Amino acid sequence: MTNPIPSAGETTIIGMPAVNIPVTSTGDRPLTQDDLDTITKLSPGSALLISTRGAVSGSRYLLDEDEVSVGRDPHADILLDDSTVSRAHAVFRRAGNTFEVDDSGSLNGTYVNRQRVDRATLHNGDEIMIGKFRLVFFSPSAVVAQ
């Protein structure tokens, strides 16, 4: 008979997912066929954000204007309604066929691939974290039609 291992005391479990099926190396939601079809139909000069975490997981946001605002304010182009998001949190800006994200002085910051940024140029598969929400960036070149 073996003796039980003495307890180290109470432990706390935080809400981390047990299984992670990535969209990219950092995402939580796999791309669906519908997502892929939408990406292949993007016109030049546009891009798509796909939410992979948060209350709006699975939502898609089209970036097809020179500036798209993100925040908790009801007038934001992309409304992310949570206390972890500032009213005017960030802005996605288009310059030709490229996009960048600019933090608007938010309290919790804007992160690209888990690095806090004031401004960053976005590439296919980049994960943008705004508050507790995660959005993955895709341009038309992300999927090659066969």
Description:
The structure is a single chain. The protein has 146 residues and is mainly β. 5% of the residues lie in helices and 34% in strands. The strands form two sheets. It has a six-stranded antiparallel β-sheet with strand order 2-1-11-10-7-8, with no helix packed on it.
Write the layout of secondary structure elements.
Blueprint: H1 33-40, E1 47-53, E2 60-63, E3 67-71, E4 78-79, E5 90-95, E6 98-103, E7 110-112, E8 115-117, E9 119-121, E10 127-130, E11 133-138
Parallel strand pairs: 3-4
Antiparallel strand pairs: 1-2, 1-11, 3-5, 5-6, 6-9, 7-8, 7-10, 10-11
Would you kindly provide a brief summary of this structure?
This protein is mainly β and 146 residues long.
- Secondary structure tally, helices: 1
**What is the terminal separation in angstroms?**
63 Å
Question: Which percent range fits the helix content?
Answer: under 10%
Mass-distribution shape: globular
What is the strand content? 25-35%
Average per-residue pLDDT, rounded, comes to: 82
Helix/strand/pairing category: mainly beta
Biggest sheet architecture = 6 strands, antiparallel
Q: What's the count of strands?
A: 11
Low-confidence stretches: 11-27
Strands side by side in the biggest sheet: 2-1-11-10-7-8
Q: Tell me the series of helices and strands, N- to C-terminal.
A: HEEEEEEEEEEE
Work out the radius of gyration: 18 Å
Keywords:
6-stranded antiparallel sheet; 146 residues; 5-stranded mixed sheet; mainly beta; globular; 34% strand; 5% helix; single chain
